[in-house]
Amino acid sequence: xxxxxxxxxxxxxxxxxxxxxxxxxxxxxxxxxxxxxxxxxxxxxxxxxxxxxxxxxxxxxxxxxxxxxxxxxxxxxxxxxxxxxxxxxxxxxxxxxxxxxxxxxxxxxxxxxxxxxxxxxxxxxxxxxxxxxxxxxxxxxxxxxxxxxxxxxxxxxxxxxxxxxxxxxxxxxxxxxxxxxxxxxxxxxxxxxxxxxxxxxxxxxxxxxxxxxxxxxxxxxxxxxxxxxxxxxxxxxxxxxxxxxxxxxxxxxxxxxxxxxxxxxxxxxxxxxxxxxxxxxxxxxxxxxxxxxxxxxxxxxxxxxxxxxxxxxxxxxxxxxxxxxxxxxxxxxxxxxxxxxxxxxxxxxxxxxxxxxxxxxxxxxxxxxxxxxxxxxxxxxxxxxxxxxxxxxxxxxxxxxxxxxxxxxxxxxxxxxxxxxxxxxxxxxxxxxxxxxxxxxxxxxxxxxxxxxxxxxxxxxxxxxxxxxxxxxxxxxxxxxxxxxxxxxxxxxxxxxxxxxxxxxxxxxxxxxxxxxxxxxxxxxxxxxxxxxxxxxxxxxxxxxxxxxxxxxxxxxxxxxxxxxxxxxxxxxxxxxxxxxxxxxxxxxxxxxxxxxx
Length: 598
Ligand code: GTP
Ligand code: SPV
Ligand code: MN
Hints:
This protein is an alpha+beta fold. The protein folds into 3 domains: 2-31 and 76-226, Phosphoenolpyruvate Carboxykinase, domain 1 (3-Layer(aba) Sandwich); 231-302 and 396-597, Phosphoenolpyruvate Carboxykinase, domain 3 (Alpha-Beta Complex); 304-387, Phosphoenolpyruvate Carboxykinase, domain 2 (Beta Complex). Helices cover 29% and strands 22% of the residues. It has 17 helices and 31 strands. Strands 1, 4, 5, 6, 7, 8, 9, 10 and 11 form a 9-stranded mixed sheet that branches. β16 (285-289) and β17 form a beta hairpin. It binds guanosine-5'-triphosphate (GTP), sulfopyruvate and manganese (II) ion.
């Protein structure tokens, strides 16, 4: 198979493409140039083959619909591996395979898997092209769906190749659908080779290799050696009435509210005070310390790959505006008029349609066990350009990024974790991030609802031993003169009936206001064994229909429950053995003492 060498003189790149094509054996190779014309052609082709369905172009201009295979609807963490020379480098937090075994196993699946198909070459940049902070990747894929998603999620095409020149560094990203068989699916990362191989899947996080694979797993590995952070964090700017914008980076596990928080609309009482929200990113933050001694962040993505169920004009108006055009809808309900719907979306429940599996659907339809059949998969998603978001920050393209004043960690916990608390200092903040826990959601394959520890929301995404990752956090903190303050939030505490106590969504700004005021030393706090919490009077509850005993409940720190938690933290820490930084053990001991003493 000849590789078109008119495109680039990058010998290493051409040789790699040649080698991969030799293995996968596609009928042809097509370079993605980033043009509208090529994008439209590919879309047409995918509509003809049925890979995509064209949606109602009057109501949803530029939008298409895609269904994945039935067993390919979320990231498969058990099939995701870090392939380093030594197992210890991957740590107890990762599945590990030796590079030799991994390349061999995947080669067997890739072999001739692109026969009768086209291999697309996608040059992409995470972060603005030519920014010192960006990383270049080349993804090879046999999926037009992947190409069209990448065109939204990253800077793609000739401009990236030009920037790469004859010898620029790039991450090798190979993706193939193969048979879309879960038993022949592998998501492999080779941080020491700067390479990713993904085979047997067609679902988002498994196949849009610039996203979780490069921008978190590979990038976290790079950041450790290069002195920066690659994090599973949204970035939001909160502008106040004096036109000062405070930037916050927040890490919540998958499907725990990043996209929603990143583009929230202030509730009336806070809008009146002059607050405005600017969205910088909803999933990934790359952060580094600059000469001014502050921590600066960019969002390396140019699009959102967001959860649809639960998204409506009330919960997330900005998202609903963003996805009106040029959007790829995956695994939602297809209505008879070729528009789309999902559970807890806008408008009345449609009387009929075709569900995400392709079967006729009606409300109330039940399966053989009497369970209601959803129209949309719980992890159905939209892919849309950030620039279409009404709250998109004017700084989304700024290669320097934005300065971060607060870091917020958070999980989905029905009990224990209060609505918000602030850590005592950076080291205690790293401890707070390291003990995060959250209920498993539909964003990953596995037991839903079970609480698991997910430090910094990075458990599935840290490309190396997490004990070393904690050290990197502790160490890098020492280089930050203007350290961001570190907080923890929980929007998901429930009452005895299992209902969320906190209204969430827009009203989360009430909590962010306290956080920002703490950063600016404008408000006090109450000291508890786990950190500082607000007094009820310091959270603006104007216009909220919630009684003060509920707020008490939300802010409660139960020492006995927390002592139980420290046992589980000890157990979690023990898997890291002597690698765990002693600072964290000492924070744990201090927490136990404070809980017993107060
Ligand atoms: P990933 O894209 O998987 O990383 O998820 P995410 O963290 O961006 O989560 P997202 O904002 O998409 O929210 C996931 C689900 O949580 C959606 O169904 C939301 O409606 C719901 N959700 C988000 N914020 C809140 C909140 O403040 N309160 C409650 N109760 N639900 C929320
Ligand atoms: C997540 O699961 O955290 C996501 C979606 O943001 S995916 O791209 O599939 O990882
Ligand atoms: Mn995510």
